[in-house]
Amino acid sequence: MTSKKKSVGVVPLGDVPEITLQVIADHITGCFKLTTQILPPFEPPDDALDERQLQYNAGIIIEAMEAMHFANHDKVIGVLNKDLFIPIFTHVFGEARQGGQCGLVSLFRLEKNPDGSTPPKSIIHERAAKVALHELGHLLDLLHCEHRKCLMHFSGGIDEVDEISLDLCEYCSIYLQDKLR
Ligand SMILES: [Zn+2]
Ligand SMILES: [Zn+2]
């Protein structure tokens, strides 16, 4: 049996800068050695918007994406500019179900530093790439990791996103190679 290389779709949900999508796709190719394709945009479903919180429910968007059956892509990362939440957290930078097909990255909170200042575009792009790779890691069945610098370390705040690296630790790397085999 020949193993087919996994392919990842990157899909904008609403208005997302082309350059950000390209940065995410390039990092997926560079770091995880997977083929990527940027897909046509679609609007997040209306029922994902929580009117009270003015945030989008990540789980509802992921369900809508999974219902689209992206036949040509093993994994799909949705990228949006809206603030995301899941019921147990007030906000999340991204979300993915363990081993699922579709994950999400929100750029909304990546564009400000903890002190309220605006970072250079290069930092915003690096953060978006980290969150995208982290969520893709979950889709590929990687779990959270204790290593503070590992890409799979959990980030609750933007300072933690800045602290993790774009790389997996040795342990997570071996696990990923095994998953991709
Ligand atoms: Zn995670
Ligand atoms: Zn690790």
Structural account:
This protein has helices spanning 18-32, 58-66, 121-139, 158-163, 170-180, and strands at 7-12, 35-38, 49-50, 55-57, 75-80, 84-86, 89-92, 94-96, 102-106. With 181 residues, the protein is of the alpha/beta class. The chain has a single domain (7-175), classed as 3-Layer(aba) Sandwich (Collagenase (Catalytic Domain)). The chain has a five-stranded mixed beta sheet with strand order 2-1-5-9-8, with helices on both faces. Helix 1 (18-32) crosses helix 3 (121-139). The chain is globular. The structure holds zinc ion (2 copies).
Attribute tags:
single chain, 9 strands, five-stranded mixed β-sheet, alpha/beta, four-stranded mixed β-sheet, binds zinc ion, 181 residues, Collagenase (Catalytic Domain)
Bound molecules: zinc ion
Q: What fraction, in percent, of the residue positions are helical?
A: 25-40%
**Whole-Å distance between the termini?**
12 Å
Strand content: 15-25%
Low-confidence stretches: none
Largest sheet: 5 strands, mixed
* Strand segment count: 9
What's the mean pLDDT score? Answer: 93
User: What is the CATH superfamily label?
Assistant: Collagenase (Catalytic Domain)
* Category from helices, strands and their pairing: alpha/beta
The SSE order reads EHEEEHEEEEEHHH
Determine and state the CATH class: Alpha Beta
Number of helical regions = 5
CATH architecture: 3-Layer(aba) Sandwich
What's the CATH topology name? Collagenase (Catalytic Domain)
From the spread of the alpha carbons, the general shape counts as: globular
Gyration radius (Cα, Å) is: 15 Å
Overall number of structural domains: 1
* Strand adjacency order, main sheet: 2-1-5-9-8
